Amino acid sequence: MILKPEVVHVLEREKTVCETAIARLREKAQPLEKQFGWSTDAFLKLFNSGEAGDEQEFFRWYALAEAIKDWQTTYEKIGLGQ
Asked: Is 29 within 8 Å of 65 (Cβ atoms)?
């Protein structure tokens, strides 16, 4: 199937929006990674298993990690995966 140029343009724009959102969210997670010495992926495993603790920063970090996952899923679903 050949996509119309307009559709390709919209998909490319959405790709850029996703990339930008992911990059900004990762920038926001970076200080938490440095502060606690975990990657966001490692943190998610600890948080989801109940081993990370219940500090307020962890809930913010969790929200950032989930938002990153959501944007990555969107990016992959539009057919332009990373």
From this structure: yes
Per-residue model confidence as pLDDT tens digits over 41-58: 999 999 999 999 889 999
Tell me the CA distances in angstroms from 22 to 40, 60, 71, one per residue in order.
13, 16, 6
Q: How far is CA 37 from CA 29, 30, 65, 77, in A?
A: 12, 10, 15, 32
**Residue ranges of the domains in the chain?**
14-77
pLDDT tens figures, 9-32: 999 999 999 999 999 999 999 999
Task: Provide CB contacts within 8 A for 80, sequence distance 6+.
Answer: 11, 12, 15
